[in-house]
Write a structure and sequence with these properties.
The complex is a heterodimer of chains A (296) and B (88). Chain A has eleven helices and eight strands. In chain A, helix 7 links the parallel strand 5 and strand 6 (201-206). Chain A has 296 residues and is an alpha/beta fold. Chain A has helices spanning 20-32, 44-49, 69-83, 97-103, 105-114, 164-170, 184-196, 210-213, 220-230, 255-259, 274-291; strands spanning 36-40, 61-63, 90-96, 119-124, 175-180, 201-206, 236-239, 242-246. Helix content of chain A is 37%, strand content 14%. Chain B has two helices and four strands. Chain B has helices at residues 39-43, 69-73, and strands spanning 25-29, 49-51, 57-59, 81-85. In chain B, strand 2 (49-51) and strand 3 (57-59) form a beta hairpin. Chain B has one domain: Alpha-Beta Plaits, CATH 3.30.70.20. The chains are: A alpha/beta (296), B alpha+beta (88).
Chain lengths: 296, 88
């Protein structure tokens, strides 16, 4: 059972009002239980939660560099194992999508190869939000960011979103899941399962970012739900390489999800760009076919 | 000295920073309408909604940034939280 009374992330941090990541982190820490050691990669979460000389964390927390969070976690896990403390204490890593799919990939690959007993949570806000919305490997197709600006000659990010969970599955991880902060119970349950599973586990959490995506902060949960309902984000669990549970939805066209965000507004102004929206719809259709999310 | 030995900070000392001053809209809670589902407490990005001893919820306005997520997500049958313009 998830203990919802656990509050290991305190007030007073500097996240934007309506931040998806800080909301998700509170839920994840509830799912992770009391005795947890947090390793944090550089990113929005690290910056807004620990402005010098303060910290919002009420659990042991360490930050080293952008790329080596899983290597630091490996060391902590090895030490806990040697001291015989691994039964009671768990290691949890937080990394943004930049730290996970771009910069930290080689350390993550190494840690998953060695099979350390820890859980890696990637909060995926689909760009480098901390430094000012630059595109990352996780930025979706056609999104407008400062390094993939939409304009006369461009319709935003030209490259597809990297399917990182499948790379982790290929490492032979016993538990890989995707979740979104718009479904808190599902997220907390998945984190609890990952913490209980022996070996390196991975969870990718969709966390809408009001500043980077351009929508009203009050709509964070709604945007998260819209992503799932249109099929651009799929919630699933892969246990020992086998797809076990998938969140099934009555799929709606991607238009509403795109129209709600400023990063896609160039697709509708001055006239609707049918060709590009059809390409994004094709991505959602491909997801639906691959994971079987449609309710018959 | 701002940090302790080993570059450590006291747990949760970000409470020194009262983020309530950022606010433009402030939430008001109608405890009569509240169904005590706890959604607002769970999703608040600040973690500034606390449960009272009588199971109702109160919002700590020292830290609330006024994002309005709680008012938006409060179930339709309750709608106990409304956002009002801050008068400063």
């Amino acid at each position: 059972m998830v203990d919802r009374t656990i509050e290991n992330f305190d007030c007073g941090h500097r996240a934007c009002g309506g931040c998806g990541a800080s909301s998700a982190v509170r839920m994840i820490l509830k799912g992770a239980g009391k005795n947890v050691i947090v390793v944090n990669a550089t990113g929005c979460l690290e910056v807004f939660s620990t402005p010098y000389p303060e910290t919002a964390w009420k659990t042991p927390w360490i930050h080293s560099l952008f790329e080596n969070s899983s290597a630091v976690a490996s060391g902590i896990e090895a030490s806990l194992k040697k001291q015989g403390r691994l039964e009671k204490e768990k290691v949890l890593v937080f990394g943004g999508d930049g730290a996970t799919v771009d910069i930290g990939t080689q350390c993550i690959s190494g840690a998953f190869e060695r099979g350390h007993d820890f859980t890696y949570v990637c909060y995926d806000n689909e760009a480098y939000m901390n430094t000012g919305i630059q595109r990352s490997g996780s930025t979706p197709y056609d999104a407008d960011t400062t390094t993939s600006p939409a304009g006369v000659c461009s319709t935003g990010n030209k490259l597809p979103k990297k399917d990182f969970p499948q790379i982790i599955v290929a490492h032979g991880s016993p538990y890989v899941a995707t979740a979104t902060m718009a479904y808190p119970m599902d997220l907390m349950k998945k984190v609890e399962t990952a913490m209980k599973t022996k070996g390196p586990c991975y969870i990718q959490v969709h966390t809408p970012c009001c500043t980077g995506w351009g929508y009203d902060g009050a709509k964070t949960m709604e945007i998260g739900r819209m992503a799932v309902e249109c099929g651009l984000w799929v919630n699933y669990e892969i246990i020992d390489g086998k797809l076990t549970t998938v969140k099934k939805v009555k799929r709606v066209p991607v238009d509403d999800y795109l129209m709600a965000q400023k990063r896609f507004r160039h697709l509708f102004k001055p006239v609707r760009n049918d060709a590009e929206i059809a390409k994004i719809q094709a991505i959602a259709d491909k997801n639906a076919e691959k994971y079987g999310i449609d309710i018959e | 000295m701002a940090l302790g030995i080993g570059c450590t900070a006291r747990p949760g000392n970000s409470r020194n920073n009262k983020t309530g001053s950022w606010r433009v809209f402030y939430p008001t809670m109608d405890t009569e309408k509240c169904t005590k589902c706890g959604t607002c407490q769970l999703i608040c990005p600040e973690g500034c909604i606390n449960q009272n001893s009588d199971k109702t919820y109160s919002i700590d306005l020292d830290f609330c940034k006024g994002c309005g997520m709680c008012a938006e997500e409060c179930p339709d049958k309750a709608k106990a939280i409304t956002m009002k313009m801050e008068e400063k």
